[in-house]
Design brief:
It is built from ten helices and twelve strands. By secondary structure, it is an alpha/beta fold. The protein has two domains: 172 residues, Rossmann fold (3-Layer(aba) Sandwich); 84 residues, Rossmann fold (3-Layer(aba) Sandwich), CATH 3.40.50. The chain starts with a helix and ends with a helix.
């Protein structure tokens, strides 16, 4: 039931059918009210300097956009970088240092899947989860970091930062609940809008491939993987940030006759202790020199 509702919700926001478009039209008054409240919230915030360079990578819509590999590619270029994020889906609250740049200090249930990806894959970078981003930034500063990357920080208008927004294609341009937009690029708000194949390029490889792979993933908008998938026996989609059990994965393998589970890095960090055969859909980004130069100039001005 949960998976069906999740799939229905993603279709409603990104590829609505006739019935869903009717629901969207009926909800437009709520959408206008929501968007007005978000604008008023933005208007009341005054961005404050943090004493370090802060770069946010995000998008305006709900759901996935490829933020994690982009943050990884950017943060890994600096020797004094930290990544601060909320830690969606984690089984903990407050602030926690996931990695001090050398050692991983908590497990994936404490950190959440995205923070664990950073801790495992971006060498030398401090990783901190915190609902209050300012608290995470302060902790990073105490740890000697002077370049802070915020995962999904556009809405933190009270923080002075360079906003990078990944452009997500969608048929609907309405705010929630009629469409997928959490906020607009408000007038007076400066940001760099990034487009795939201009500002960054995806490179996908499959590691530890087997003869009969079964796709199992818990990412937002999982069908965006279709352009990169090899042949798979079956596809199983779970809600974003879902924590898998070993039993449910063993059942999928047994029923499908699969020889391995094909997963993303976001899924792998929650499965790696189960001892099951995993194939990794490994996604890396190549970032344009033009964008890197803009970020470097901003960082040098604000360190």
């Amino acid at each position: 039931m949960t998976q069906s509702l999740h799939s229905w919700g993603e279709r409603y926001l990104y590829a609505p059918d006739r019935y869903q478009r009717l629901i969207s039209l009926l909800l437009l008054p709520l959408s206008w009210l929501y968007c007005a409240l978000m604008y008023w919230r933005f208007h009341l915030k005054k961005p404050l300097a943090q004493g370090v360079a802060v770069v946010s990578v995000g998008n305006l819509t709900v759901g996935g956009s490829g933020k994690t590999p982009l943050v990884s590619a950017l943060a890994g270029r600096y020797t004094d970088a930290a990544i601060v994020l909320r830690g969606y889906g984690r089984h903990s609250k407050g602030m926690a240092v996931v990695s001090d740049g050398e050692t991983i200090l908590c497990d994936v249930r404490c950190s959440g899947d995205e923070a664990m990806i950073y801790a495992q894959s971006v060498q030398g970078v401090v990783v901190i989860v915190s609902e209050e981003r300012e608290a995470g930034i302060e902790q990073a500063k105490k740890m000697g970091r002077s370049v802070i990357f915020l995962d999904d920080g556009y809405s933190k208008h009270q923080i002075e930062k360079l906003d990078l927004l990944i452009d997500v294609k969608t048929r609907s341009h309405a705010c929630l609940p009629s469409g997928p937009y959490r906020e607009r690029l408000w007038q007076g708000k400066e940001a760099l809008t990034l487009t795939e194949e201009r500002d960054f390029f995806r490179r996908v490889t499959v590691k530890d491939a087997t003869e009969r792979m079964v796709l199992v993933t818990a990412i937002a908008r999982p069908k965006r993987l279709d352009d990169f998938l090899p042949a798979v026996a079956e596809k199983h989609y779970f809600p974003d940030h879902h924590f898998f059990s070993k039993e449910e994965l063993e059942t999928i393998l047994a029923k499908s006759g699969g020889t391995s589970l094909l997963v993303t890095f976001k899924d792998q960090v929650k499965m790696e202790t189960f001892g099951l055969p995993l194939s990794l859909l490994d996604l890396e980004l190549e970032v344009s020199e033009t964008l890197l130069d803009k970020i470097d100039r901003y960082v040098e001005r604000h360190r």
